[in-house]
Amino acid sequence: MRDIYTPGDPEFARWRAGHRYEEDAANLPDWWGAWGNLVAETTARGVVMRRARVVSEPATDYIRYEHDMTFANVAAGELVRWLPRRQAADLVLPGTDLWLFDGTAVLFTFFSGAGEVVDREWRTDPPVVKQVEAAFEAVWQRAIPHEEYKPA
């Protein structure tokens, strides 16, 4: 939901300086291994992991960086889609980033204006989970698969 996250991230700085992984998951930074392994193990059990990103256009450098690195998410087994914010204008969406787990729990993540994580909150109350699930499904239906989306 944000157009920039952790702007001091050293990998983002390397990307801005011209470094690219060229869709080679074997050479990703060390921090990626744990996430990639978790996704691969989870999806191998038949769990579907979907990630939707709502982004502004023209895209920020950070969104271009995320798009460039998303090949690794897809290679690990995630399904990823992108929705330009203009196409989400008539959708009712939560005000912050979140993870929805099996339609039973939501983890909201709250960020500072500069893009740093300031807090997280677990919610399991059914009305909140249902609202989040409906919002995610609406985004998912409109969003563009990663392989087809090119940041403007």
Keywords:
152 residues, alpha+beta, 3-stranded antiparallel β-sheet, 4 helices, 36% helix, globular
Question: Describe it for me?
Answer:
The protein is 36% helix and 22% strand. The mean pLDDT is 94. β1 (50-55), α3 and β2 (79-84) form a beta-alpha-beta unit. It has one domain (10-145). The strands form two sheets. It has a three-stranded mixed β-sheet with strand order 1-2-6, with helices on both faces. A three-stranded antiparallel β-sheet has the order 3-4-5, covered by helices on one side. It is built from four helices and six strands; from the N terminus they run ααβαββββαβ. With 152 residues, it is of the alpha+beta class.
In short:
By secondary structure, the protein is an alpha+beta fold. The chain has one domain. 36% of the residues lie in helices and 22% in strands.
Structural class: alpha+beta
Helix content: 25-40%
- Overall spatial form: globular
Strand content: 15-25%
Continuous helix count = 4
Distance between the termini: 16 Å
Q: What summary fits the major beta sheet?
A: 3 strands, mixed
List the uncertain runs: none
Spell the H/E element sequence.
HHEHEEEEHE
Q: Could you tell me the radius of gyration in angstroms?
A: 16 Å
Mean pLDDT: 94
* Record field, number of beta strands: 6
In spatial order, strands of the major sheet run 1-2-6
What is the domain tally? 1
The multimeric state of the shown protein is: single chain
